[in-house]
């Protein structure tokens, strides 16, 4: 058994090592920030797949609801990083259509967080100072009315802004988005008196693009997915045809600014040829 002075010395050494690691990480982060600032190009539209909330909670011995709560807090933090860099459009994927099969209590908690964050964003000084236009994209027909009210209030308060475009993908699926776009195009053609035969004969990719949820936003040029999973899971299937991808081995709530900057530095080093 260690004596009290020895135990105190061990604690002091541990604190010193921790402080040294923190200083090294801070220094590395500052160097990355300079490299990204000097690296030129940044994404016009950044897609973020927020994955790993539940595994983060499990790894920390917490309930899954805490993982989602920490994930919501992280989204606020990452929004600030994007604003500081002047990224023009960001789409964050919060809840997929496939997630609807999860435990109803978990879905209810996620929707309560969505309502809370929508109300917070509607009064967030950063949103108004930076003229951020916020939209919720996806299929929301089955959402509780109070959640829809919060989303509508946020959209209405920011609808006239011309700064960053922030798309919150919730109740979202890439296949469903494409199906909705085709339906809307055909309905529009029918309302104009165009026959189904003529509409299908003249159908082009531009017609589909014109009716996507993100029709007023450039296609994403960079997509980051956290948690180490190497797949898209249906995120922006139509729009991501020329997107660059980055898969990060950290759960979303643990995503650090240094991870974000590493991803952007990686993007800046890529040669995008668009099939040429």
Summary tags:
single chain; 276 residues; alpha/beta; six-stranded parallel beta sheet; 6 strands; 52% helix; globular; UPP_synth-like_CS; magnesium
Structure in words:
With 276 residues, this protein is of the alpha/beta class. It has 10 helices and 6 strands. Strands 3-4-2-1-5-6 form a 6-stranded parallel beta sheet, with helices on both faces. Helix 6 links the parallel strand 3 and strand 4 (165-172). Helix 1 runs parallel beside helix 10 and helix 3 (64-85) runs parallel beside helix 4 (104-122). The termini are far apart. One of its GO terms (molecular function) is transferase activity. Keywords: Magnesium, Metal-binding, Transferase. Its cofactor is Mg(2+). This is Isoprenyl transferase.
Structural class, from helix and strand content? alpha/beta
**Average residue pLDDT:** 92
Read across the widest sheet, the strand sequence of neighbours is: 3-4-2-1-5-6
Secondary structure tally: strands: 6
Spans of at least 5 consecutive residues with low confidence: none
State which percent range the strand residues make up: 5-15%
Apparent shape = globular
Tally of individual helices = 10
H/E series: HEHHEHHEHEHHHEEH
Main β-sheet, in a few words? 6 strands, parallel
- Rg from C-alpha positions? 22 Å
Q: Give the helix level as a range of percent.
A: 40-55%
Question: Distance between termini?
Answer: 69 Å
Keywords: Magnesium, Metal-binding, Transferase
Pfam family, one: Prenyltransf
EC number: 2.5.1.-
Family: Belongs to the UPP synthase family. Z-FPP synthase subfamily.
């Amino acid at each position: 058994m260690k004596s009290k002075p020895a135990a105190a010395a061990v604690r002091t050494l541990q604190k010193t090592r921790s402080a040294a690691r923190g200083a090294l990480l801070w220094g590395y982060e500052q160097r990355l920030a300079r490299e990204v600032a000097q690296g030129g190009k940044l994404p016009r539209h950044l897609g973020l797949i927020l994955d790993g909330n539940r595994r983060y909670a499990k790894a920390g011995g917490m309930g899954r609801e805490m993982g989602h709560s920490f994930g919501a807090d992280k989204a606020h933090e990452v929004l600030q990083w994007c604003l500081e860099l002047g990224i023009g459009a960001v789409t964050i994927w919060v809840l997929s259509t496939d997630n609807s099969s999860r435990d109803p209590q978990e879905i209810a908690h996620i929707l309560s967080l969505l309502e809370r964050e929508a109300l917070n964003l509607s009064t967030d000084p950063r949103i108004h100072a930076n003229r951020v236009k916020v939209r919720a994209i996806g299929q929301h027909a089955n959402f509780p009315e109070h959640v829809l009210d919060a989303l509508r209030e946020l959209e209405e308060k920011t609808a006239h802004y011309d700064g960053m475009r922030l798309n919150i993908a919730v109740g979202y699926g890439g296949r469903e988005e494409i199906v909705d776009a085709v339906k809307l195009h055909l309905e529009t053609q029918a309302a104009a008196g165009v026959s189904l035969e003529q509409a299908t004969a003249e159908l082009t990719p531009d017609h589909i693009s014109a009716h996507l949820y993100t029709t007023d936003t450039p296609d994403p040029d960079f997509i980051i997915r956290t948690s180490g999973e190497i797949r898209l899971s249906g995120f922006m299937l139509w729009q991501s045809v020329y997107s660059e991808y980055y898969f990060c081995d950290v759960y979303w709530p643990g995503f650090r600014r240094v991870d974000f900057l590493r991803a952007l530095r990686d993007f800046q080093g890529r040669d995008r040829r668009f099939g040429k």
